[in-house]
């Protein structure tokens, strides 16, 4: 194997097509359905999404060509490096080879830009002038702000009020990219007004912010909505990560025994893992670790049921692992992993036992992240720390069993805007709240009864 | 020319030697002298620096081999990409080819790590157990914190009190890398105690923090001091930047007409430019733009005189452009450029008219930085924005004169910890204070009378 710290593909070797796993699944996914029980069709999505995105969402074509304009935009930061974590290996005294795919190198600091760019492009191509979206801590909003700027679209971001006030840096970044950012709930939408009427000091929630952005898109002809995870087309755009990993591992002369990625809505995990799933279905010995927070254990504790994608029930129902659309996870620092449900495809793969799910509390995740930062320099996002924790645990098993496995971490983003979380960990102030099973049971009882 | 967004050298093509410009200067540099007028020798530096660093500081050997251990550490993030700013060119409608060397990809987020790594290594090799240093906003402190962690040394950082309180994120980053960080003035040193006696609420200054770190090193046998700019060995370590640029431009089939870099102490500028200076002395048509803030116009308004390196006069005297060691520049956001003097070598080259100096106010620099971020995604550090401003102005001249020049920006670091400065610019709150010539004249009158 070549002894390189980083394997960087040349731009001409960057994948030219996304991989659509729907083509390789042994049976079709359970359909998306409307609240009235009827399967959802293109007409249901048309008010908020452009037609090309709707087509991709339901496509079963195995390879979807990446438009030239998207390739050009990707080249601003892609291909991203695959790095060997030699120093981490040394500190762990493990015979395992640990690699990390560094998605923190994008303008927005995370993998989110991989789908923000094509979403902005397809909207631009269909004459849309403005995109409306929501953001929690700001990763997705930052990505969409740059992507829209790149293609000359306007961008409106509804940012959850508590983050708007407490995490101003990501807001300033979005504004630097030219987006207009409003604290949600806002007075700009009916949905926001209703919330403010009941509670003028509402801190907001992702559910409310989604409602505001969807309403903004549905009520303005020149405006569409976009989502940063969960949906099939989003997961597909992210497969450029795994396709690059495949090429990079080939260049080194290695192949992963284990791929670990964090799971919130599932797109980061999907991106790294989907291109390898067909290999596993053909008998290849490879394991996929979907790592979620113990505070929001969708895949490890939730049932596989039909549920709404959002708290306000504006989105249709999908079959997925879920804690219930009105479940409110505790306020962990990995804000990007606090989603009640999960990608329907990732859920399907967990259900078919092709993917292993596990959960960690946040303190052991930060312990792993600090060790990683000290070893490799890169400061991981709290979300990414979950994948690192799982990889370290597997590397320790390798040390004990003397097995030389290749472990790949999908490092979703950097933690430059999360340093107060690190301070909380380092100073011993961080706490791990026990997961409230009863609260989950209460939320699951309210799920619609759909088989 | 190859149409690539990024040229990334393979690790095996990374330079194996630093370039020492002292070997190529037409005459020796004016010597460093002690306060008593005697030229400073190794014995004067031995209490605070390891012998190998002292040797490098005075060496006239043209190529200095980079130790294998330093090469290994560099490979964690180097070689850094040379990127073509296609989108910026399009927005400017310029026929110029604009490139930027992206030094923001290091663990510490800037070029500072290029010298922090070898400094930590040489100290480790000579049995030092702990490094003491100062930091203003935290760029240098972050770099040293990671570098010491990499080689298993302890690290103590004296951070200027006002930044310690107002910019906690960089402090948390240093602590994540394992450094102990104290607000300066502190009660840990005689120097700090003296300041606190007079003013218990002192906000501190870089001069005071240097005094504390130097005292810490001088009074502990196992501890040495280190500096992040100005000195010859620091500039030499940074030449890996320019040596990489040379190779990368060759790979593209291009050669710079102009290289622009910001100047504080001068090491970032030196790193990019020194490897090209010999070409210019041989008659090559290439221009070097040393870009400084109008609030601290050392090269453009200061005299070329002997002055102390620090306010407290603990360091010896060097011949350089200076505003006087007790000159206090106004509080611009580019904290890394607020140094009263400059690298003696950069000063020499400016004096010999081999380098052009220019200055900009901060508002036009932020205007340039925002345009750059919107075009290329990367959010520049306020320091780097000075080089971008100069490059943009040259590109506009190219548009007007229809000249297809190659302009290279040395992008020293990212601005992820400077977003409040961006907010200040975007909201119209940023101000540009007029430079106080009378204050400079007062400070220059106090300079020692040395020819």
Give your account of this protein's structure:
The structure is a homodimer of 451-residue chains. Chain A has a domain of 259 residues: Rossmann fold (3-Layer(aba) Sandwich). The longest helix of chain A has 21 residues. Chain A contains 18 helices and 15 strands. Chains A and B meet through helix 6, helix 8, helix 15 and helix 17 of A and helix 6, helix 8, helix 15 and helix 17 of B.
* Proportion in helices of chain A: 40-55%
Name the biggest interface.
A-B, 41 and 41 residues
Question: What is the CATH first-level class name of the domain at 6-10 and 68-109 and 233-444 in chain A?
Answer: Alpha Beta
CATH third-tier fold name of the domain at 6-10 and 68-109 and 233-444 in chain A: Rossmann fold
Uncertain regions of chain A: pLDDT < 50 for 5+ in a row? none
Q: Look at the helices and sheets of chain A and give the structural class.
A: alpha/beta
* Oligomerization state: homodimer
Radius of gyration of chain A: 21 Å
Distinct helical segment count of chain A: 18
Number of strands of chain A: 15
Going by CATH, the architecture of the domain at 6-10 and 68-109 and 233-444 in chain A would be 3-Layer(aba) Sandwich
Q: What is the straight-line distance between the termini of chain A?
A: 50 Å
